[in-house]
Write a structure and sequence with these properties.
The chain is an alpha+beta fold and 372 residues long. The protein is built from 10 helices and 5 strands, in the order ααααααααβαββαββ. It has a 5-stranded mixed sheet with strand order 1-2-3-5-4, covered by helices on one side.
């Protein structure tokens, strides 16, 4: 009980190896009970069981190898229904990963080979009909498992979106409260302090004009009034702003400290950015790193800022679990990111990468926001 979280990739690999071990042990044990089992039969069973370990990365290849090996074993050894266990597992796993058509086709191929092993047509039909029911169950349970996993992912996504919405609502309420406090301070204090400072200044001026010595207390009041006005303006400025303070480099450092393997690469000649553009770059990097930490799993993230002559390109790539065949729905974060980029006249591209993982690419005109 060390308290350290288990890497999901390692958990999946252990589960795959456990599946291979259980299925392989069962089919080999059943084959060993038949005195006519040959070395070729053992080899075919071992191949059809071992290939199941690759079902997450190459499900169709696994399905094909398991079906061919299982069919060859059935034609050579004439086993009972349990001899189809490896093919049954491959069909179920392929269906669970969304390849139900291929799973049904592989089932038909194996059942055709299995039917050919019957000594008579009647017995072949009986044996095949019983086994066909098993394969129908494999396809159906695979689809049910896929739908259940999709439901769990949607539920988790809705929970994350609800949490983010609550956070945004809390931030909005906090901003409104800051503005209210700023208005109250401005109305109640600024006018009074200004009057005190003005009256003290007039008294000092009149005293000097008459050639009288200015009382030290009066000078202290004038100086304290000016200092109070400066401090009050600074306080009101803080209360009125909710913009972030920091840089993309600081965000990357924070991500590393939180356990995310992140790196920053800056190319081109850096230059001072207008405030709206600087805020947009900060928000893009911040949202991308947040999404990578939440959804990419144990991934590496690369943040790249490329300064061109007229355009600043911001790119954040990870090698996480995003799949091009199942692009995620844009949430509030991506939507807000797109609105910021569009408002500055830039372009934004987000989505899974062909080689795996997720990519955020934004191109922003370097002159954007100068008039804001």
């Amino acid at each position: 009980m060390s308290g350290h979280p288990v890497d999901p990739a390692i958990s999946q690999r252990l589960a795959d190896l456990a599946l291979v071990g259980v299925v392989g042990a069962l089919v080999l044990a059943l084959a060993a009970r038949d005195a006519d089992t040959t070395a070729l039969d053992y080899g075919l069973l071992a191949v059809s069981a071992a290939v199941l370990a690759l079902h997450r990365t190459a499900p169709l290849v696994v399905l094909a190898v398991a079906t061919v090996s299982g069919a060859a074993y059935a034609l050579h050894a004439h086993p009972g229904p349990l001899g189809a266990l490896t093919v049954f597992a491959a069909v179920h796993l392929a269906s669970q990963l969304g390849h139900r058509g291929w799973a049904a086709g592989a089932s038909a191929v194996f059942l055709g080979a299995y039917a050919a092993t019957g000594p008579t047509a009647h017995e072949a039909v009986e044996k095949t009909a019983l086994l066909a029911g098993w394969f129908v169950c494999a396809v159906v349970t695979g689809l049910a498992g896929r739908n259940w996993q999709a439901y769990l992912r949607q539920t988790e996504q809705r929970a994350l979106e609800a949490e983010r919405t609550r956070e945004e609502a809390a931030l909005r309420r906090a901003g409104e409260e800051r503005l209210r406090i700023a208005r109250e301070l401005h109305d109640s204090l600024t006018h009074s302090i200004s009057i005190v400072k003005l009256q003290a200044g007039v008294a000092v001026h009149l005293a000097r004009k008459r050639g009288e010595e200015v009382p030290p207390a009066l000078l202290a009041i004038q100086e304290a009034g000016g200092e109070a006005m400066r401090e009050l303006r600074a306080t009101l400025e803080v209360l009125r702003t909710d913009e972030p303070t920091g840089t993309p480099a600081l965000l990357v450092e924070r991500a590393r400290a939180a356990g995310l393997a992140a790196e920053l690469c800056v190319t081109g000649e850096e230059c001072a950015l207008p405030a709206p553009l600087d805020r947009a770059v900060y928000r893009i990097v911040q949202e991308s790193l947040t999404n990578a930490a939440r959804h990419a799993g144990p991934a590496k993230v690369r943040v790249e800022l490329a300064y061109g002559e007229d355009v600043l390109a911001v790119r954040v790539d990870d090698d996480g679990t995003a799949d091009p065949e199942r692009p995620p729905r844009p949430g509030h974060g991506l939507t807000g990111m797109r609105e910021r980029v569009t408002a500055l006249g830039g372009t934004l591209h987000t989505g899974p990468r062909v080689e795996g993982g997720f990519s955020v690419r934004a191109e922003l005109p370097l002159g954007a926001g100068e008039s804001a």
